[in-house]
Design goal:
- With about 725 residues, the chain is mainly α.
- Among the domains are: about 350 residues, no CATH class; about 100 residues, Tetratricopeptide repeat domain (Serine Threonine Protein Phosphatase 5, Tetratricopeptide repeat, Alpha Horseshoe).
- The chain has 37 helices and no strands.
- Helix 8 packs antiparallel against helix 9, helix 31 packs antiparallel against helix 32 and helix 33 runs antiparallel to helix 34.
- The longest helix is centred in the N-terminal third of the chain and has 30 residues.
Length: about 725
Amino acid sequence: MKTFFRKEAVFLLVLFAVALGLRLVYLGQLQDSPIFDAPIMDAKYHDEWARVIGQDWSQALLEGVTLHPGSAYFRAPLYAYFLALIYTVFGQDYLAVRVIQFLIGSLSVLLIYFLGRRVFSPLVGKIAGVMAALYGTFIYFEGELLIPVLILFLNLLLVLAVLAATRRPGWWKWLGCGALLGLSAIARPNVLIFLGVLIPWMAVAMKRGGQRWPRILLHAGALLLGAVLLMLPFHIHNRKMADDFLPFMVSQGGVNFFIGNNPDSDGATAIVPGTRATWWGGYYDALQLAEEAEGHTLKASEVSTYWFRRGLQFIREEPAGAWQLLARKVALFWHGQETANNKDIYFFSARRPLTGLLIRSGVIDLPFGLIAPLALAGMVLAWRRRENRGTGLLALFVFSYMIGVVLFFVNARFRLPVVPFLLPFAAYSLGALFRKERPAGVILPIGLIIVFGVLVNVNFSGAPLPSDAEAYNTLGSVYLGKEMYPRAEESFRLALEEEPGYVRSISGLARVYDRTDRHEEAIEQWERAISISSEMMELHFQAGFSYYAAGRLDEAIAAWEETARLRPDFPQAHFQLGIAYEDLGDDQRAIEEYRTTLEINPAYILAGYNLGHLYKRLGRIEEAIAEFKKAIEVDPKFGDVYNSLAWLYAEQGINLDEGIELARRALELDSEAAAYWDTLAELYIQKGELEKAREIFRRMMQREPENAFWKERLSKVDG
């Protein structure tokens, strides 16, 4: 026995070392990627959310924090809090995040070994562990700022804990199982469907073990209590943040349900029809569409309910289409292809030698196209041979989690949590091929593997591989954000070689030209994009900036007016029109546009700020004062508006004490702002407190000895 455990310990050490070693090799290859320190889409959302959490941990823990002020949680918060904790300890270090995630991923490999050993045998556990160590998609997602690394680890702990609690029941064990399930739900609520099948499975297993119903009910109650206790704080956060209640904690479910259940859905594309393809653009468009349909402002739960209703309406009104779409999503779920969500997995994996070897599209799509047939064959073989030490629980997890995915939409990231529970079946299937039985005994395993291999690797869903145009466009956007303009231009041009009419890359190219002061070339690209998609509001909006920068003011105004026509409630368009009309000398139209901006969004502080200055220039002093004061109410941390109102008081020689207080408030916000010191000095001059003004000028002369302005100001006071 001691020898067995010693050998097992050695194997576990080697397995962990191999798993971690491969991941560190990948980490070394990943660091030169432009996206390594420039997260995009969901990863960017997590990154920004984590930084906000880290600014005030007490608020984050006691009241909750989201990127949607005044709203409940849109996404499950566990990963953002996990990321914030790493940032708090190590700073915003993307290398540290990945090292920690690769450590967790390597521990998950060990848990897969234990799962295979517990359900089948030590040999199956070893095969499953090796498969997990080499599973390329695990490694790929562990290197992303995304949720799967936590979900896989927590779900493995959960199922192992359930198996242990079933073997030797205790209420406290089931309480712990519930806590693990609740923790996993805080990462992604899909696992709550597993709870619905776990309780009946638990009751049957305990009844077969000789337990009485009162004890079974007690343990089931402990399981539910553990889950509720872990999720309860986040329900309380939703109540505190937004006076809102969401049964599954997050409001994303409704819109995701509609994405996967509407006449235009392909089962994989994560965009609400008719909304923008950007993360925040899609979010705000979905919110706006819901509120327009309902005719009033909605809470997050109400937005979610609206989109759930829309999805259910499609299912009721088009049952044949809904069943066909569901079948397509099931086919997508089991298809060997790794369906992309935020970026093309094959494109970016191929650029790293390790993942390029482990993740491939072909006759057999690696790795899922190899593992899934083995696993499905293993399920059939385990059922035939009455393997009953937990195989049913693993199968229940796989298929209940699958339901939680196909009810919405399918991609590789959402499917990945079932893979750890497929690997023991895949290992069992391989083991069946080499059992010391009569040769005829391998016919069934081989036949099953071939049949499932065909079913998994033939594209019955009809899903196309993503084009390289999208991937090159992603690279171009990242390079653009990093101000690496030649690389950005090259990437956008490569995207357009793949797909000449790809509007996002045409507009990306236009942005490159704008950033490099090639505005006429930018205009050419915007006009090209508009000729393809004339109803895309943002194309007209961005084109307006290029016209404006090129001095073509009338065309800029026309572009922004078209933007406002396409989306009348878009405040930025009216704000830019206000600026343009001011430049054109049409002050009345400028006032109208600024006022329209503020009617749409009273918190649009720059519109009030600009309007205040326009009123001041026109001599409408009382109106200017009123606008500046409103702007201060909207954003008490905007130093320029304090300074502008204080300077107005100084120029008019009115409210000087109030002006001094305003200037001091501005300086509290930014003590380095020279204009604020000048305003304070002018107020002292107007009040006759010349020595205080001189002191400011002397101090500024010491700070900026090369700036003759302060010497001139001092000489005027002395003169």
